[in-house]
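User: tokens in, sequence out, please.
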């Protein structure tokens, strides 16, 4: 009886999402002990706002990694969506027009990625690396390298306002993750995403239109990058052509930390959310502890390497 309960507890701890959630709680406890200024309501609320952009990107990156791909262009799409939305608002003085344009730009970039990967059979690393350069380049070209400050009234709602004391950005993230969960678990599109990541050839032979599905997957990634772009725009009060630099690394790290396999087919959206909170909380904690920003980059990079190595070990154990 006791042995059975013990085995169940050990099996639960072997679940990557559960394990990383416990690690998140432990990390928050340690940082709060090192700095009394960390574990306060205002700081925790600020962490959720700071986490909004990364968690949005990580949600889209989850779809891509589950399909066995990778999206390296998300940070550049954040910048392009941000400055495009800002420029449209400068011309129209309308959030209702400006924000949807940012989402459309993100969706278009995603469709282009999906077309290159699904139709032209370009490896995801190469295709999205190309988008990284193209998106960032276009953002600098259309702005002349200058930030865009002329925004429409109400543009700060998504990134700075609160509803019943909860940041609107945090509420948006929760809604996004619920939608992503329902899509992945309850729809054919979600099942197809897992199937392609598990075995692309088998998915094709079973009747799945793999190329069309990949275009859809990368479009989702692009839309979440566009949403992250207008959220960043709303939070900082300007469209920055240099925005989102390195964000794709945080998004990938979040997905892998949450238990997704880089080879595809394994992972879940709630694990990604936990992974993103670990990344952002760690960075915030290191800031509170006055750790040099360069060492923070070292820490995040090391986490990515360790997470990928743990994923490889897990895959080997699963095959035995």
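Assistant: Sequence out:
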């Amino acid at each position: 009886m006791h042995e059975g309960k013990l085995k169940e507890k050990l099996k639960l701890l072997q679940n990557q999402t559960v394990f990383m959630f416990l690690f998140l709680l432990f990390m928050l406890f340690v940082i709060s002990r090192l700095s009394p200024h960390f574990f306060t309501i205002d700081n925790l609320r600020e962490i959720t706002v700071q986490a909004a952009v990364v968690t949005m990107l990580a949600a889209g990156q989850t779809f891509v990694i589950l399909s066995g791909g990778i999206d390296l262009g998300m940070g550049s799409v954040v910048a392009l969506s941000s400055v495009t939305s800002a420029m449209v608002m400068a011309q129209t003085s309308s959030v209702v027009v400006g924000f949807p344009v940012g989402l459309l730009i993100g969706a278009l970039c995603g469709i282009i990625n999906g077309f290159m990967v699904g139709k032209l059979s370009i490896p995801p690393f190469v295709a999205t690396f190309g988008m990284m350069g193209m998106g960032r380049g276009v953002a600098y070209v259309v702005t002349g390298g200058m930030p865009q400050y002329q925004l429409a009234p109400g543009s700060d709602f998504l990134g700075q306002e609160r509803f019943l004391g909860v940041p609107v950005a945090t509420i948006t993230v929760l809604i996004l993750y619920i939608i992503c969960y329902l899509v992945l678990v309850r729809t054919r599109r979600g099942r197809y995403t897992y199937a392609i990541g598990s075995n692309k050839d088998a998915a094709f032979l079973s009747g799945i239109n793999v190329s069309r599905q990949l275009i859809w997957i990368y479009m989702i990634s692009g839309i979440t990058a566009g949403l992250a772009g207008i959220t960043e725009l709303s939070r900082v009060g300007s469209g920055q052509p240099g925005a989102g630099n390195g964000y794709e690394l945080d998004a990938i790290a979040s997905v892998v930390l949450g238990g997704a396999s880089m080879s595809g087919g394994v992972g879940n959206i709630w694990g990604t959310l936990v992974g993103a909170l670990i990344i952002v909380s760690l960075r915030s904690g290191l800031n509170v502890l006055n750790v040099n920003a360069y060492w923070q980059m070292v820490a995040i990079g090391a986490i990515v390497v360790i997470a990928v190595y743990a994923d490889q070990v897990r895959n080997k154990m699963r095959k035995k």
